[in-house]
Amino acid sequence: MGESTMNENQAEGTGKSILGKAKEALGNLTGDHRQVAEGRANQAEGTVQEGVGGLQKGIGDALGRTSGQEQAAGQGDQLVGKAKEGLGNVTGNQDLQAEGTAQQGTGKAKEVLGNLKDGAEKLLSGER
Predict the structure, then answer these.
(1) Were both Cys, which of 16, 69, 72, 85 would link to 65 (CB 3.0–4.6 Å)?
(2) Residue 7: CA atoms inside 13 Å, Cβ hemisphere, count?
(3) Which ranges of 1-128 does DSSP label H, i.e. alpha helix?
(4) Phi/psi zone of residue 92: left (φ > 0), alpha (ψ -120 to 50 degrees), beta?
(5) Alpha-carbon distance 69 to 88, whole Å?
(6) What is the pLDDT of residues 75-99, one digit of tens each?
(7) Backbone phi and psi for residue 14, each to the nearest 5 degrees, phi listed first
(8) From the CB of residue 93, how many other CB atoms can be counted at a distance below 10 Å?
(9) In angstroms, what is the C-alpha Rg of the chain?
């Protein structure tokens, strides 16, 4: 299924996040508040783009899974996402919060896709 490879959005998002962290660190070192803010904005943009890429990849991977596998994968992503978001809240790590929120959204999408597959399978087999 190619689950270990990144798609273009994931790769670009990771790059933006890394660039943002570097800008923020440089801004902190030089006392440049504008550069710190730009760095944080780059990180946020990168996190969102990584999430979009993850969703795209998840949908592509989902096409090869059964409805039950899809639902389980979605529930797992939601659980891990909630943990990341909670840890981010406790530690004040906004990147981790955003990553957790994005992973929860990806998980919900996978679960819904699994439910749709399940409904389609039942419809096609004549079950109710």
Answers:
(1) 69
(2) 17
(3) 8-30, 33-62, 67-91, 94-125
(4) left
(5) 28
(6) 888 888 888 888 888 888 898 889 8
(7) -65, -40
(8) 14
(9) 18
Q: How far apart are the first and last CA of the chain?
A: 31
Tokens of 88: 């981010």
Q: Do residues 114 and 71 lie in contact, with contact meaning Cβ atoms separated by under 8 Å? A: yes
Name the burial class of residue 12, with classes exposed (0-12), middle (13-18) and buried (19+) by CB atoms within 10 angstroms of its CB. middle
Q: What is the maximal distance between C-alpha atoms in the chain?
A: 68
For residue 5, the 8-state DSSP code is S
The rounded distance, in Å, linking the Cα atoms of 10 and 6 is: 6
Nearest alpha carbon to residue 50 among 105, 110, 88, 127: 105
pTM assigned to the model? 0.49
Residues 6+ apart with CB under 8 A from 79: 107
Tokens of 57: 């990849």
